[in-house]
Structure to design on (289 residues):
């Protein structure tokens, strides 16, 4: 006789329903943990780099490496031995060396010619500068200095200007009393052209003591003896040559003259110290004396 296990009949699944899935909580938890760890590691890395940057660690390491490299370069024969300077006249040699910031044995590879050029051109007398490294051991400097042209009186102050009409800073005018004096707000930029005209007649040039710019258009010249010469707005050179010729021929400046007016192209008007009217006699050549 055999025995058979009694089996229960299977229940049929209701139509329209799917079997329930098991939750994947463990998998999701692992993914979140991994992402969180990566974010934490990235934050820690960025924070560490930021701290090192703020602390200056990178800068110190770079500086240390550079100093080591420069020390090796000096040992290899690339240290400054001499500084050659051309064009220096008024600028002190010690001031140039101080501005360059180099001394014997300084690593020539660490020397910055462009930065040195900028510093040199900030000195009072230096107009332009050129700086070079001449390997293996020399620094070469060529400077062009400003040339004092005149004393400029403006707003109660007297300063020294150069040939470009620029102010020469930190220069005392007491050391340049032999320069001509110019007056007027826009006088500096026109002084070089005026002095070219004045110097074209040496005998008259010696008599000029000052020049006053009038209305930004022309000049009045002050001569020895208190004589004012009024130059025209245009062709000042021609008027100045005319006065020189008349002085040679007639000695007009030897008279008791106060003002010589050269503003009119066809005449020269002279005002004397007397109370009489200015002499006005037109000649055939268009001159008045």
């Amino acid at each position: 006789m055999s025995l058979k296990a009694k089996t229960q009949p299977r229940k049929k699944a209701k139509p329209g329903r799917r079997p329930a899935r098991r939750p994947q909580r463990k998998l999701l938890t692992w993914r979140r943990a991994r992402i969180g760890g990566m974010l934490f590691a990235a934050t820690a890395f960025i924070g560490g780099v930021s701290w090192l940057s703020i602390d200056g660690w990178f800068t110190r390491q770079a500086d240390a490496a550079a100093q080591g490299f420069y020390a090796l370069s000096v040992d290899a024969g690339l240290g400054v031995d001499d500084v050659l300077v051309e064009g220096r006249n008024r600028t002190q040699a010690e001031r140039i060396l101080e501005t360059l910031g180099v001394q014997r044995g300084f690593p020539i590879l660490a020397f910055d010619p462009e930065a040195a050029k900028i510093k040199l051109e900030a000195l009072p007398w230096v107009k332009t500068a050129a700086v070079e490294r001449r390997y293996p051991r020399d620094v070469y400097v060529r400077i062009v200095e400003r040339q004092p042209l005149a004393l400029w009186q403006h707003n109660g102050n007297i300063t020294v200007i150069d040939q470009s009409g620029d102010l020469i800073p930190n220069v005392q005018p007491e050391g340049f009393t032999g320069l001509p004096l110019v007056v007027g707000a826009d006088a500096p930029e026109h002084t070089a052209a005026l002095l070219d005209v004045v110097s074209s007649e040496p005998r008259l040039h010696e008599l000029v003591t000052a020049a006053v710019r009038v209305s930004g258009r022309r000049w009045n010249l002050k001569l020895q003896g208190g004589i004012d010469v009024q130059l025209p707005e245009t062709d000042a050179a021609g008027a100045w040559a005319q006065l020189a010729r008349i002085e040679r021929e007639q000695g007009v400046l030897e008279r008791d003259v106060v003002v010589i007016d050269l503003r009119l192209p066809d005449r020269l008007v002279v005002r004397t110290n007397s109370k009489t009217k200015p002499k006005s006699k037109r000649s055939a050549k268009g001159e008045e004396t």
